[in-house]
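About this split. The held-out portion is used to measure sequence recovery: a designer receives only the structure tokens and must propose an amino acid at every position. Recovery is the fraction of positions where the proposal matches the reference. Here is one held-out target exactly as it appears in the evaluation file.
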């Protein structure tokens, strides 16, 4: 399948663009747009995905080591770690990183101001520094050695040196190189002096015209073979500028940016930033609101079901509340009358006898030598009923005589007398008030 992709490369104060078609690792239909504005480059690249390769001096690279591994854990502390290394507050920087080995990460940062000058384009899938884009392109083209090697990228006066060990960056230097300074030779010497690092060769990529002289100097001073890979020979087309490895890498990364250091990824999904925290908080609030709504709806449904039942079974409900009432037709009106009657009813019997006084009288006048237990006491309009147990039938007769002598009590009748299993006498006494 043919894929269309492209890239915008920052060259000093201007930008150039490149687009091409990719099919089975073959590049075709190459278009180069030089000295164009960003808006014109956007139109020239069309609607396909593309990447942006920033000048090395526009950002910062770091090789950091942490006592733990895992992107989630590292993302929680990397901003505070880089706070001391960056010249600007981390709030003003866009950052991303990838873990190269257990606890070791390759991190990059660029000022938000630099990215704001580029603007937000819909189809941008990758934004990174040119050194990393060029390294990716060299790897894709098969121009990197299998053993350890030294990678040097000149971007004007800005230099990035990466010591690659076991396929991953292990040593890093980034600086501005002036002709009268010996910082370049010192940086190479420091990396080559590492006791456990023995690169087989050096890969040099430069957009300057003095790449050949740089190669001779490195080979002479540091005694290491230097290779300047040709873009024409590597990809089989002469339409691309020979030094435009970074443009090729950014275009390829736009097709598959996952797992690479990518500033565009943070623009879409910040690393545990405020936006993610706010999003999680809003999600929690939405969940709580949904739960509260569900509980309110359940409460309403249960009440509605109870109301429907009460509305459909008026006769049974009336009989359960007033079992001694006669059969009636207008149940709502009967309920209203009963309720009014209950509201008017005093806590005293019809003859002015207090139910509480009746119980007090009964408990005080029963002989203390009689063993009796009252289980329940019920008052229904003009009648009262209570039941209990005692030790003998003689004691039961004395209890009945005591009840008959109570003030305001008449027609005392002994009912439901039987002998319990423990030889206790169960009884029920009914009377009128």
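Reference sequence for scoring:
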């Amino acid at each position: 399948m043919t894929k269309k992709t492209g890239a915008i490369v920052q060259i000093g104060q201007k930008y150039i663009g490149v687009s091409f078609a990719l099919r089975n690792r073959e590049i075709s239909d190459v278009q180069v747009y030089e000295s164009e504005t960003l808006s014109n480059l956007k139109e020239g690249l069309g609607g396909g995905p593309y990447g942006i390769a920033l000048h090395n001096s526009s950002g910062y690279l770091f090789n950091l080591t942490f006592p733990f591994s895992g992107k989630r854990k590292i993302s929680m502390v990397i901003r505070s770690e880089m706070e001391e290394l960056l010249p600007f507050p981390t709030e003003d920087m866009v950052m991303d990183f990838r873990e190269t080995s257990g606890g070791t990460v390759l991190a990059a940062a660029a000022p938000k101001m630099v990215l704001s000058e580029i603007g937000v384009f819909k189809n941008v899938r990758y934004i990174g520094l040119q050194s990393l884009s060029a390294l990716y392109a060299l790897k894709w083209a098969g121009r990197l050695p299998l053993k350890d090697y030294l990678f040097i990228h000149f971007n004007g006066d800005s230099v990035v040196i990466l010591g690659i060990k076991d396929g991953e960056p292990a040593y890093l230097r980034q600086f501005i190189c002036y002709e009268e300074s010996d910082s370049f030779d010192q940086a190479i010497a420091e990396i080559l002096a590492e006791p456990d690092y023995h690169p087989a060769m050096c890969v040099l990529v430069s957009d300057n015209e003095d790449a050949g002289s740089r190669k001779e100097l490195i080979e002479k001073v540091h005694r290491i073979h230097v290779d300047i890979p040709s873009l024409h020979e590597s990809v089989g087309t002469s339409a691309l500028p020979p030094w435009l490895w970074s443009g090729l890498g950014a275009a390829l990364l736009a097709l598959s940016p996952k797992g690479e250091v990518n500033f565009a990824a943070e623009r879409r999904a910040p690393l545990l930033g405020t936006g993610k925290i706010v999003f999680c908080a809003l999600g929690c609030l939405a969940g709580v609101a949904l739960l509260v709504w569900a509980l309110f709806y359940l409460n309403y449904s249960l009440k509605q079901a109870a109301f429907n039942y009460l509305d459909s079974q008026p006769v049974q409900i009336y009989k359960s509340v007033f079992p001694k009432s006669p059969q009636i037709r207008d149940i709502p009106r009967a309920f209203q009358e009963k309720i009014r009657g209950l509201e008017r009813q005093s806590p005293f019997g019809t003859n002015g006898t207090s139910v509480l006084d009746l119980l007090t009288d009964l408990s005080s006048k029963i002989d203390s030598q009689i063993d009796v237990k009252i289980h329940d006491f019920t008052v229904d309009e003009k009648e009262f009923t209570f039941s209990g147990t005692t030790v003998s039938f003689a004691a039961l007769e004395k209890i009945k005589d005591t009840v008959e002598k109570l003030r305001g009590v008449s027609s005392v009748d002994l009912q439901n007398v039987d002998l319990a299993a423990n030889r206790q006498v169960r009884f029920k006494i009914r009377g009128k008030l």
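Annotator remark: The longest helix spans residues 274-312.
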